[in-house]
Amino acid sequence: xxxxxxxxxxxxxxxxxxxxxxxxxxxxxxxxxxxxxxxxxxxxxxxxxxxxxxxxxxxxxxxxxxxxxxxxxxxxxxxxxxxxxxxxxxxxxxxxxxxxxxxxxxxxxxxxxxxxxxxxxxxxxxxxxxxxxxxxxxxxxxxxxxxxxxxxxxxxxxxxxxxxxxxxxxxxxxxxxxxxxxxxxxxxxxxxxxxxxxxxxxxxxxxxxxxxxxxxxxxxxxxxxxxxxxxxxxxxxxxxxxxxxxxxxxxxxxxxxxxxxxxxxxxxxxxxxxxxxxxxxxxxxxxxxxxxxxxxxxxxxxxxxxxxxxxxxxxxxxxxxxxxxxxxxxxxxxxxxxxxxxxxxxxxxxxxxxxxxxxxxxxxxxxxxxxxxxxxxxxxxxxxxxxx
Length: 388
Ligand SMILES: O=C(O)CCC(=O)C(=O)O
Ligand SMILES: [Fe+2]
What we know:
The chain is an alpha+beta fold.
């Protein structure tokens, strides 16, 4: 699934965007803009499978069955829904109520936790602050991100890892609004349920690859996580308008688990350049492969491109949970994928922390961390720049 690379979108006047003739679709890949040709004879996926994982704690045989289904879905589509995942519906419903309450707060209360105040580039982001698609004015959404932090007590670092946090981590990687303590509580309640579910899925992936179930445990001992609360106001979307909630992109994760409230807006790009809807299905999370897992499978599991366009006239809320290996992990292509899939790919081992920083810093050029290190050449960037 390689994309045809054309001139970057930012260099093109709108009238010349190749997508306008219906033959190409545009998306962001890493920090680059690129296009995919729309197939004349479609053969790609037309819907996203739903996988029942009720037996995720069951017998080895039952878990291998789930693993097989996930394997097929990841190869065919890069996306799948999971149902019977064990996270209570009430908890999910309550969490979305907390999201609505948070985004309805006055700007000043939210800006107290603006992500420019945090070196790890987490916290609150007001409307139009990111721009996944350079042809637009920016992404029409508000967001709040938090994630792994070795020293926030809620994350029980010592209990989970059996050792003390690294001594160089002296300040929290998350930032919270001082006037809304219930926000931190609500986000953590959900996080505490998603984290163990994500860990179980990592073991299912090991089974899917016919590896020891614990094969990836070391890389995920204290993984990089990101949880991003999102609010998309309704936007007018017509054929000629490029207005989007979140521009087309592939995720920078190993896997992502997205909780969606009731309003549909997520669209997934298939191999033919056709957008397939991924509406909310009650009681499910929609999951997708991110670029780390794509790398380890040599592209056999694609990090499928997706975008959000809220055309419904209603407010939409969603809550992706991004899981990646720990920053120290070095990811090689798994042996079984070396002769499969994309022959042009390089099999080099990638370091998670190094790749992570290369992805997040260029996307936030005005962030104080990006400014602080602007004269440092990219090859010298380290993950620890986000911790100081
Ligand atoms: O809002 C959604 O449904 C998906 C969000 C997403 O793709 C992302 O944050 O990477
Ligand atoms: Fe995404």
